[in-house]
Amino acid sequence: MIIKNEYPVLEFDTDKDSIVNPFKWNLDQLKTNKLIITFFPDVMESLKTEKLIEPAYHFGGENPVDLYAFTQEPDVLITLGYVGCPACAGNLEFFAASGINKVMFCGGGGVLDKNIKVGELLVVEGAIRDEGFSYRYIEPSRYIYTDKKITKKITDYLDEHKISYLTGLTWTTDAMFRETKALVEQRKAEGAKIVEMEQAGCIAIAQYRNFDYGAIIYGGDDVSQNEWDTRSWDKRRGIRYNLVMLCKELVKVI
């Protein structure tokens, strides 16, 4: 049943079935249920060069996706994420239909507070839903939250290993070039610490398909000031590499 609204993005269909549905396709089942999604192509290339990962699975089509397995731990897969909810979270449908039910996401995002340092880790507790994708999976709401039990497993591990971190919300947007000063201030007042483009959608898929999902995003560029400061966020190779390796351990405990 469609719950109607004046605005199409806020209309919601309670019907769980859909015309195009990977769960109807009898996809080959993967040999593991654990996956890391990263947005660090430089780290992926390093892992390949160091022979720490090797090709494991390939999803074809017009937007192909490759999954790699860690050579010493083949039960953990890793893939390079696509930007935006429809691409990144949409691929989670394929992965879930193929047997993945434990996912750790790691990426970088723009800080809404200049006091969040480059490389500071944010354990995602939820997202402000300023996009369209998640509204096709979960009824309209201003916020969507990660599973508290999964988040606690992540923070317990970080505490045990004395790794510092923040917890809080992200602001998920579809429009990276429309992060205006007023919107930044509003989202910050609502509790968001970082702006990014995937979390609301990924959390929605995890809820809809009932699998374990966690995300850590490190403080990257600064959008809190009048002028954008890149802070060379995408050149922080050590931070990015270490975060991927951290998520390799976390995906085994969530």
Write out key terms for the chains shown.
254 residues; alpha/beta; two-stranded antiparallel ribbon; five-stranded mixed β-barrel
Structural class: alpha/beta
The coarse silhouette is globular
How are the strands ordered across the major sheet? 7-11-10-8-12
Low-pLDDT segments? none
Q: Please, could you describe this protein's structure?
A:
The chain has 254 residues and is of the alpha/beta class. The chain contains six helices and twelve strands. It has helices spanning 41-49, 85-97, 148-160, 181-189, 199-209, 237-250, and strands at 2-3, 12-13, 34-38, 53-59, 65-70, 76-80, 102-111, 121-130, 143-145, 166-173, 192-196, 212-222. The strands form two sheets. It has a five-stranded mixed beta barrel, surrounded by four helices. It has a two-stranded antiparallel sheet with strand order 1-2. Strand 5 (65-70) and strand 6 (76-80) form a beta hairpin. The mean pLDDT is 95.
Helix and strand layout, with pairings?
Elements: E1 2-3, E2 12-13, E3 34-38, H1 41-49, E4 53-59, E5 65-70, E6 76-80, H2 85-97, E7 102-111, E8 121-130, E9 143-145, H3 148-160, E10 166-173, H4 181-189, E11 192-196, H5 199-209, E12 212-222, H6 237-250
Parallel strand pairs: 3-6, 3-7, 7-12, 8-10, 10-11
Antiparallel strand pairs: 1-2, 4-5, 5-6, 7-11, 8-9, 8-12
Helix pairs in contact: 2-5
